[in-house]
Write a structure and sequence with these properties.
CATH topology of the largest domain: D-amino Acid Aminotransferase, Chain A, domain 1
Order of helices and strands: HEEEEEEHEEEHHEEEHEEEEHEHEEEHE
Number of helices: 8
CATH superfamily of the largest domain: Aminotransferase class 4, branched-chain amino acid transferase, N-terminal domain
Strand content: 25-35%
Oligomer: single chain
CATH architecture of the largest domain: 2-Layer Sandwich
Helix content: 10-25%
Shape: globular
Bound molecules: pyridoxal-5'-phosphate
Radius of gyration: 23 Å
Number of domains: 2
Distance between the termini: 43 Å
CATH class of the largest domain: Alpha Beta
């Protein structure tokens, strides 16, 4: 499915060739600082397109080859801000990763180099037709120096689906994960060790063809930048207020809401500003005549209801082309389901829990508020992990939602605590992927 719309479709992937390529000695000591003059020499050359021996026609173009990585160390490391001064997404580390692609030669040499501006032709497709997509993931550093990623395979799979949706090239997600590990390990001094801090990683893929025609981009650039970030809840949990908008839609069936495309986000800014003017922090995105709930701001949505039999039902709308398949959404669902099945108890969650993915409409919330059965509403996403909702403005009035004494309901709190423990390595879990082992 991932490669259905991809320009690589007719070209068999070269993943098996590149993955089995022997690593050179220089590529196996990637994190070692290099002098500027050493930068290029000695690196393995990126794989070349494979041609038909008879016709000379290109039959395979190279996938990303992590073993051909070149590292250009910064000669002027930046001064790091004290943790307390970090603002989300405003500070960037010393290095970035770039990998060029073209339809003729495939994925080129991955380079880690000093963080800095890109030089692009003004006709680049990214500037005109929004050939851009991104991911959001985090790295965590333990006291012993161990650096971990959280479920990077999920981000890579989603990034490939996004790429395929707008005819940008797909790639070997494992190879990109390897390269991201090298980048975060090289810049690991930038990951604050204090509790709640992490490194936000932003892989991005843009179309760079220099031509104004609308069509698949013949050139692309994948880059990854990293930003040290503080705890979302530095001063206690702050529930958010949502405006359930009937004026704007975020996504529609057959559209692109289920993909992390740049094109989905700029149009959400004016609705958010309008919501802010009315005293709400985010939009609750609805769809259709019956005002089905889809997402909150740029987070997935969960709601919980008390049932007559004493159980609590945790609901999230099912995935489809309107809902972004969040990594935290999936993780929250799995943790809650394991709790419901009695496989792994999550402290704080209702003992009798039912987890469902089903359509949810505003009338359900209105009725639950009237009956006193509204238990909790929260959003999930990599930045905040969970975010409680205490109020939803809808058709001229506010629906009040319980959030508990701490400002975070018991389900959101239980999920948050478990996820943080997994992400930071406090609990061993297959979701937590080690980028580099500590020295303790
Ligand atoms: C990124 C994003 C999410 C959350 O995804 P995570 O992988 O959990 O961070 C949810 N909704 C939208 C619209 C998003 O862009």
């Amino acid at each position: 499915m991932a490669s259905r719309l991809s320009p690589l479709r007719t070209l068999p992937r070269l993943a098996s060739l590149t993955r089995n390529a022997p690593a050179t000695s220089s590529a196996s000591s990637l994190a070692r600082p290099l002098l500027a003059s050493q930068q290029i020499r000695g690196y393995k050359k990126a794989p070349q397109p494979m041609r038909d021996v008879m016709t000379g026609e290109i039959i395979q173009i190279p996938d990303i080859d992590a073993s051909s990585l070149q590292i250009q160390n910064t000669q002027s490391p930046k001064t790091r801000l004290p943790n307390s001064k970090l603002i989300f997404g405003k500070t960037f580390t010393d290095h970035m990763l770039t990998i060029p692609w073209s339809s003729a030669s495939g994925w080129g040499t991955p380079i880690i180099k000093p963080y800095g501006p890109l030089e692009l032709d003004p006709s680049s497709t990214v500037f005109h037709y929004a050939f851009t997509l991104f991911e959001g993931m985090k790295a965590y550093r333990q006291e012993d120096g161990t650096v971990r990623l959280f479920r990077p395979d999920m981000n890579m799979a989603r990034m490939n689906r996004s790429a395929a949706r707008i005819a940008l090239p797909t790639f070997d997600g494992e190879a990109l994960t390897e390269l991201i590990k090298k980048l975060v390990v090289l810049d690991s001094e930038w990951i604050p060790q204090e509790k709640g801090y992490s490194l936000y990683i932003r892989p991005t893929l843009i179309g760079t063809q220099n031509a104004l025609g609308v069509g698949p981009s013949s050139d692309a650039l994948l880059f990854v930048i990293c930003s040290p970030v503080g705890p979302y809840y530095a001063s206690g949990f702050k529930p958010v207020q949502l405006l359930a908008t009937t004026k704007f839609v975020r996504a529609a069936p057959g559209g692109t809401g289920g993909y992390k495309l740049g094109a989905n986000y700029a149009p959400g800014v004016v609705p958010q500003a309008e919501a802010a003017k009315e005293g709400y922090s985010q939009n609750l995105w609805l769809y259709g005549e019956d005002h089905a709930l889809t997402e909150v701001g740029t987070m997935n949505l969960f709601a919980a209801f008390k049932k007559p039999d004493g159980s609590v039902e945790l609901v999230t709308p099912p995935l489809g082309d309107m809902i972004l398949p969040g990594v935290v959404r999936d993780s929250a669902l799995r943790l809650a389901q394991d709790h419901a099945d009695g496989k792994e108890v999550l402290p704080g969650l209702p003992e009798k829990l039912v987890v469902t993915e089903r359509k949810l409409i505003m009338a359900d919330l209105v009725e639950a508020e009237k009956n006193g059965t509204l238990f909790e509403v929260f959003g999930t996403g990599t930045a905040a992990i969970v975010s409680a909702v205490d109020k939803i403005g809808y058709e001229g009035r506010d629906i009040a939602i319980p959030t508990g004494p701490e400002g975070l309901g018991p389900i959101a709190k239980g999920i948050l605590d478990r996820l943080v423990a997994i992400q930071t390595g406090e609990i061993d879990h297959p979701w937590s992927v080690i980028a580099s082992e500590g020295k303790a």
